[in-house]
Predict the 3D structure of the following.
Amino acid sequence: MARTSHKRKSYSPERRKQILDTAAREGLTATDVKKKFGVTPVTYYSWRKKTGATVRRGRGGLRAGSGSDLTSTVRTEVRAKIEQILPGIVKSEVASYVDSLFGSRRGRRRV
């Protein structure tokens, strides 16, 4: 069976932005975008990913994707706190493990 060729449509950056903005504002799905603008879902998702305009649907409704300022701030603060406390945790765990292998070092003189 022969495939029919479809002419590829080209969208200007301004038109892409307009479509993405409208889809976000109206809460359109990829199928809705295809019906309204003729943009395939794959193309729509690709545009969203490239612009960082990702939106995840979940139990909490719509949430900003990884590009949001709040997410970035929280991620930075958590990472800094982990980097601050992790060395102490690792040192404690390693000491505990070594003690379990060779017995307690307490009361022994270091050589």
